[in-house]
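User: Please run a holo structure prediction.
Assistant: Happy to. Please share the sequence and the ligand.
User: Here you go; the ligand is NAP.
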Amino acid sequence: MSSANSGADARTVDVVIVGAGFAGLHLLYRMRELGLSVQSFEAGGDVGGTWYWNRYPGARCDSPSSSYQYFFSRELLEEWQWSQRFPPQSEALAYLNYVADRFDLRDHIQFDTRVVSAHYDEDRDRWRIETDAGEILVTRFFISAIGVLTEPLVPDLPGQDKARPKFLHTCRWPHGGVDFRGKRVGVIGTGATGIQVIQSIAGEVASLTVFQRTPNYAIPIRNPALDETDWQTRRDQADATHALTHETFSGFEYHLNPQSALDVSDSERRAYLEELWADGSLSFWVGNYHDILASEAANAPVAEFVREKIRARVDDPATAEKLMPDYPYGSRRVPLENGYFEVYNQDNVTLIDVNEDPMQAFTEQGIRTASGEHKFDYIVLATGFDAVTGSYSRIDIRGRDGASLNAKWAQRPLAYLGIQSAGFPNLFMVTGPTAPTTAFCNYPTCGGMQVEWVTDCIRHLTRQGLTRIEPEPAAEVEWADHVDEVANMTLIPATKSWWMGSNVGGKAHSVLGYIGGANEYKRICDEVAAENYKGFETA
Ligand code: NAP
């Protein structure tokens, strides 16, 4: 590593971007359009971010393809045709590859390269970026599009080094796939990822043992194929769809129901929920009665409706009971599923509730729980991520006076609008902590809002002859207080989830994303910009 290099002879660019996933490609497109020199770095071997890394069986997008796409190019909207309402991983990845080629973005991206440090040099008013290849760049703007879920979690159990089964983390899946036919497989984790893996491989493995810590309110997906008529309708409606995603709470095309779940009779509610259920999408979550996340009383009948649906699909009542969530519906990410609960009716599938039968160690042949040893050929870790702040933990980011961003965030991730942190001038974050991207937002919608905001901000600075922007400390605290205040009006902080950091031992209990709505977030960001970047200091 050439860390001794002061940067005096280093390559200089206007912008360094970290990440070539959904947000990173959008940013690169916009920065180049501004006429700036840009260098992107990507740890993966190609573009795609989440869709590059998460190649596990059954990986699919829970956002509908009508709004899980870019709206920045009319040509792109005309050209790309999604095959299904909810695209599989391979298609989402093909889309991002198409975009990279279509707009000649690849030449600006260095793959298989991690940024290991980014230090702000106050005297030169520049960032000094170092990669794991020892390359050093000097840049005015440093933009992180690093993603929300990039740092995999592995259970803290002894014995993995001596265990013979092959371990597979879902976000480090072999590119050639895995042949599970006739194999004994253990899957740890039943989040959105685990559910997709389990329902996809249960039919081919010799035996499948699922280790569940928290059951989920998964709801059935309806995923029709799309044809020429659908494509034409989508093209015609693209502008309206884009506008709608900015008007809704979730950045999807679903409006929350303004009625209270408690203002209707039981039969009316049931009829409404059945109708919403039949849509087979996350509308059953973020298009439901508006108060289900604010009031336990409003939540209860909806939660019971879903539990009834699950119960009806599982033959063995004891297994069904293990699959019953007992926290408020929707206070953790709701996964979509396809035949997941029926898997537990198969003779080759066993469900272990690790709260009753705790995992104690990995053994030479598998996993030992309190009740005995379970032998496997493969152990799939669908155990999730050290979310949002964890993504930053592998980069040594230092601002004014050498202050570390990771240290600053240890107790509370302060970032004004989720975009900038005080003391770190010209460091922009897209999908950073306390932005809405983390929780309730369709990723391209809220990621896109932030990309456009950062682009407008840099354009504004350039036009005004300014070179630096950073938030006032008071503004980021006020924003963090607002984020907490909004979260505390909901049932979310009281439920354990990765949104609250509770899946990582020792992580601060703090809401990682803004829950005030994509629409409200956009209104606030637009207002800040319109009021001459209120809460920011420029120079
Ligand atoms: P996750 O939601 O955090 O789920 C991880 C699972 O592993 C949970 O069931 C967790 O239990 C369990 N787990 C973790 N450590 C464990 C341990 N030591 N012992 C036992 N169990 C353990 O992660 P994910 O499923 O990868 O999903 C993360 C997010 O990615 C989702 O919420 C979603 O936003 C996104 N995602 C989206 C899609 C899609 O669009 N279709 C698909 C997959 C993922 P606890 O719940 O008790 O922590």
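The mean pLDDT is 96.
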